[in-house]
Amino acid sequence: MKASKSIKALAAAVVMSAGTLFAQAPAPNINWYTNDSAADTFYIATADELAGLASLVNSTAADGLYDRFEGRTIILTRNVNLAAYGEAYNGGEGWAPIGRSLNFRFRGVFDGNGKVVSGLYINSNRYDLSDPPYDGLFGCVDTGGEVKNLGVVGVDITGYRQVGGIAGGVIVGKIANCYTTGTITGSNSEAGGIVGYVGNRCSVLDCYSAAAVSASRYGTVGGVAGSLGDGSIIKGCYSTGAVNAAGDYAGGVVGSVSGSGTASVSGKAGVVSCYSTGAVSGKNRVGGVVGSISFTGDSVKNCYSTGAVSGDAYVGGVAGYNSGRVLNCAALNPSVTKDAYSDYSGRVVGYSQSGSSGVLLSGNLAFDGIINEAGTAVWSNKGAANVNGADISAPAVNADGTVGRLFADADIWTAQNGKLPGLFGQTVDMPRHLTPPVNAQAPTITAHPADGEAAVGEAGSTHGLTVSARVTDGGELSYQWYSHTTESTFGGTEIPGATGAAYDAPADEIGIFYYYVVVTNTIADNGDGGAKSSVTTSAAATLTVKIGSSVSPPERGAPAARPFGIAHSGAGLRIVGAAQATPIRIYDMRGKLLMSRSAMPDELISLSRLARGTYVVKALGNSVRIVR
Asked: Is 535 in the same domain as 582?
């Protein structure tokens, strides 16, 4: 057999600059296969080798070499980046899926071996009625096919029909222990974070998706899978990304469960032990876990959702529309809302067929604070066997990590009080709307600002005040100091910039001054409606600024004895020993400023305007008492 033209094509040299720097175009590599094409197990390690796998599966006998790998295994041995097979590849469509359509199905086992594929880009609007396309890292995984132990991160996928991060669709196959992140958009059919279409007798196990998934036209959309067929199961999976359908059928885990039982092995389709935390929106049949359960006996069991759910009609916290069974599930959503002029919304199920054999609601709980389209938490028809479920409060959810024993199976769930149950040995952080209100603790002041005395000094002189406070709730303390004219801690004047635990109060004016500080504790998370901050006000501190005693006043008429000083005589004052102009201030004995000016060296300053009495003179930190 001859290799196909796509496999044999030589890499084109792309000139990157006027020098000798070149970049090689992607070239699918099948050497790992041709070295021993009859092997049971193959190993690949590069993007080109992964593209070689796609080329082999997507070829036919007419092309030359091809293989569907039925009964054989491919193991990925290294992380792979598919950036070279991105926007500039394949005529702008990017990656060619492994098993691109119904006529080119992958039937082997692909073991990702715990490795990660990044840089997956697909932009395909191709559609052929005779050969419907499937878009994802893998396209169509068929009978006996399996993809396992693989992460695909940062995907950017836009497809027309079946679209998923791991595979566009699985038909009598299996996906296990895989995860995805990124953005996935479908158009006219199924789109899912892991897989778009899950056919008959398939399983999707222990997978999760953090991808945002949407359908731009009429697609069925789910956080994990778009749709689920006869005898198929999704178990132990979760999604955290937003799910949005421009049309009908949107679910946090699966858009539509539609196992009629006609081709089932176990009887019906089921979604078991799954949860979603992202917002879900669409038109009709919109649910936090499943958009629609279409046939009697199909079931959703031991699942929960915590995201807001919104749509036009048939909107529910767990399932939008139910013709099957919803058992032991919890609607823990902040809101479930429909169009005000449409019918059917419910905390657990938007609408459930009544009087039909095989239709059952049982053991279901709903957060008692779920808001409806009227903006209230008032719901009728409550009860574990009714569409609005039995009440469970936020404190009760926090007190019991198994949520009323619905998620107590330790072989599946990891539970811890104060958290939501999770999968893969992890718990789930409590969403804000379920977190009880937490009020910031009022600070405890352990040392109030102390009263003090200070000798009056020159401009800029200060006296230190301090406060000590503590909290035990992990909050952050902040401070604001105030001044006042009386010994009060109310109605003071905020001091700009005085926002620390210490404050240097001015001490350049004689008088009595009052200060206090407001200490604020701010917490990072106040839960749902708690006080984010709390304040405590200190006691007022009294600061007395008075005449200093460090310089002895000279006798009347005697010159200053110091090299620098203030000399007083009957004629007036002189600043002696100064080399330049010196600011002086004169106060009466009550601290009132009477005169402020600069004096030149040895300049005589007349005091004739002052009445007879005793005064305080200050100059450059010196202060003396004079009598006139």
From this structure: no
Closest CA to 434 of 395, 408, 471: 395
Query: DSSP string covering 448-492, please?
Result: PPPPEEEE--STT-EEEEE-EEE-SSS-EEEEEEEEESSS-SSS-
Place of tokens 């409060």: 393
- Measured CA to CA, the distance from residue 445 to residue 447 in angstroms comes to 6
The string of pLDDT tens digits covering residues 330-346 is: 999 999 999 988 889 99
- Kindly give the pairing relationship between strand 208-209 and strand 238-239: parallel
Tokens of 367: 């957060």
Question: Which of helix, strand or coil describes residue 187?
Answer: coil
Q: Which of 210, 171, 166, 169 is nearest to 189 (CA)?
A: 169
DSSP category for residue 432: G
Which CATH number do you get for residue 484?
Answer: 2.60.40.10
Interior/surface letters 503-541, b for 16+ CB within 10 angstroms, e for the rest: bebbbebbeebbbbbbbbbebeebbbeeebebebbbebb
Pair (542, 570) in one structural domain = no
Task: List, for residues 220-279, the tens digit of each pLDDT value.
Answer: 999 999 999 888 999 999 999 999 999 999 999 999 998 654 433 344 679 999 999 999
Cα–Cα nearest to 605, from 593, 619, 591, 592: 619
In a domain, 240, yes or no: no
Q: What are phi and psi of 268, to 5 degrees?
A: -145, 170
404 within some domain: no
The number of helix segments (H) and strand segments (E) in the chain equals: 4, 59
**133 and 161 Cβ atoms separated by less than 8 Å:** yes
Residues 529 and 498 in one domain: yes
542 with 571, same domain? no
Q: Which of 144, 45, 155, 154 is nearest to 97 (CA)?
A: 155
Give the residue from 496, 515, 546 where a domain finishes: 546
Amino acid letter, 297: G
Is residue 224 assigned to a domain? no
- 534 in the same domain as 496: yes
Q: By residue range, what is the domain housing residue 578?
A: 565-627
| 253: in domain | no
Pairing of the two strands 73-76 and 134-135 = unpaired
How far apart are the C-alpha atoms of 28 and 48, rounded to whole Å? 4
Q: Which amino acid is at 626?
A: I
**Total tally of structural domains belonging to the chain:** 2
**pLDDT, tens digit (0-9, with 9 covering 90-100), for 12-24:** 332 233 333 334 5
